[in-house]
Amino acid sequence: MLYGYALLSPALVLFLVFIAGPLLAAIGLSFYSWDLFSAREFVGLQNYRDLGQDDTARQAIRNSFVFAFGSIVLHLGLGLLLALAVNRPMHGALRYFLRTAYFFPLLISWASVSLIWLYALNPNFGFFNYYLQQLGFQPPNWLVDKTWAMAALLGVDLWRTLGFTFIILLAGLQGVPRSLYEAAMLDGAGPARRFVTITVPMISPTLFFALILNFIGAFQIFEPMFIMTNGGPADSTRSLVQHIFETGFRSFEMGYASAMAIVVFVVIMIATLIQFGLGRSWVHYD
Amino acid sequence: MIERTDRSRARSRPCLGRLPDWTLNLGLALLGLLMLAPVFWVFITSILTTDDAFNLPPVWLPSRTTFAHYREVFDLLPFWTMVGNSLKISGIITLGAVATSTLAAYAFARLRFPGRDLLFVLLLSALMVPQQVTVIPTFILIRNLGLLDTHEAIYLPAIINVFGIFLLRQFFLSIPRELEDSARLDGAGHLRILLQIIVPLSAPAISALAIFVFQAAWNDFFWPNLFLTSPEKMTLPLGLVSLKGQYGGGSALALFAAMSMVALPILVLFAFTQRFLTESIATTGLKG
């Protein structure tokens, strides 16, 4: 019986030290004012009250939600379209090429991806705007334009991680028994009807999984903002992670940064629980 | 006969309008090429002369090439030290995460002990704790342990992998217990059953986990950026970002050369392991 605990102990010790412990410590710290060097001062809920007045923090929260929402819609929508398009009879080599080409950016680190696009989007020597101009568009200077910076980051995120959603949705589609479609066609169901009544319910667990992963991933994103725009212009791409990072390690407001982190945690928890609750009505496990 | 099955397949595909197949295939292939283009651009630019690089229209098929920027990388960065650091850190994290996850997963899947299910739920809930929530206390902890600017600061917190425990537990549960019975009759202990029966049977799941953990550690920027300050301790992603110099200058080309050197081996490896990798992502995805 003790054997179970013995096997578990390495994981459990690390879990307590590096996940559970820090989580509890963050809750505790959020009631203090502390610059990491002088003595801690207990301030109660003051950090949370300050958050309500902090325009930058609110902007960061809004940005993170905009990014998460845009990212989820783009990934699930385009990922599903691509998966449907590739899930047809086609030459094996073509399928191999498509899977490779759509998926491979995921293997390039966020640091490299951010640097590549920082240069590719540069209006003076990047290829992106050059070809848009050749096609007759008047592209903005993406990363320094308040209106377009977030859209550009969403695009870069799409380029890097669309392959993940695509691959798991493709696997989901391949798991749908063909006989279901054949039976539906015998009943005279058209393509749209087959999509709504067979495809979506059959792959709903996969869709749900992709939704949750995209949501959690989008809220943790840090590198592209940090490297490409540094949160600018005018905080329009400042994300929550970056804001917490800078509040903690540039302004050394450890308590305040912790309060922010706890708010993020609670928001993510609630959003995840809501998604699980809503999921019950549309996700079908067998 | 074959023809008929093919046709019925084509008809039975889910809805996608009435486009002829070849136009759709062409569009998909073009999109694939567009996905590849930025990385191809980096490779090509890295071997252009300083005069040719960053001119518009972009050069896709260079007439003059040079490896000067690759040599420059070694002047600007302790490149091989960084490769060594990245390999060391990612290797330790991968071995550690696979080992702790395997042991814990076996305990959850095969052993009975009080509080087992409660512990499992507790561990799983950690999946919902994002890194920004633990970053401040983790930093303070690492500082108090005197581990700032050390590799331990990066790999110790990363060895615990809750997703890995969950993944392997699900896989172990799908292995029939009968396979272990004869070994148990022969008096084999849990550790022998785990190492000689369960682990070999779980090779696909374990290697998939190892690949994911390794590439996540190899690509990580957030934690090394927080903890590592000396250039000779830095990992590759940090080194790359430190090269982010003046636009159009020589160091930008060195950066392109460095990115190519980091990405090329991974992409070549991926071209050969694509099927295994993507399929294991797909199955682990479905099991999550």
Main sheet record of chain A: 2 strands, antiparallel
Question: Which two chains touch over the largest interface?
Answer: A-B, 106 and 105 residues
Helix share of residues of chain A?
over 70%
> Hey, roughly how much beta strand do the residues of chain A contain?
under 5%
**CATH topology type of the largest domain in chain B:** MetI-like fold
Distance between the termini of chain A: 36 Å
State the assembly state of the protein chains. heterodimer
Mean pLDDT rating of chain A: 89
Examine the secondary-structure arrangement and name the CATH architecture of chain A. Orthogonal Bundle
Total strand segments of chain B:
0
Q: Going by CATH, what is the homologous superfamily of chain A?
A: MetI-like
Report the biggest beta sheet of chain B as strand number plus sense, adding barrel if it closes: none
Shape of chain B, please? globular
Low-pLDDT stretches of chain B:
1-15
Can you tell me about this structure?
The complex is a heterodimer of chains A (about 290) and B (about 290). By secondary structure, chain A is an all-alpha fold. Chain A has one domain: Orthogonal Bundle (MetI-like fold), CATH 1.10.3720.10. Chain A is about 75% helix and about 0% strand. Chain A is built from 13 helices and 2 strands; from the N terminus they run αββαααααααααααα. In chain A, strands 1-2 form a two-stranded antiparallel sheet. In chain A, strand 1 and strand 2 form a beta hairpin. The N terminus of chain B is likely disordered. In chain B, helix 3 packs across helix 14 and helix 11 packs antiparallel against helix 14. With about 290 residues, chain B is an all-alpha fold. Chain B has 2 domains: about 45 residues, no CATH class; about 210 residues, Orthogonal Bundle (MetI-like fold), CATH 1.10.3720. The chains are: A mainly alpha (about 290), B mainly alpha (about 290). At the A-B interface, helix 1, helix 3, helix 4, helix 5 and helix 7 of A face helix 1, helix 2, helix 4, helix 5 and helix 6 of B.
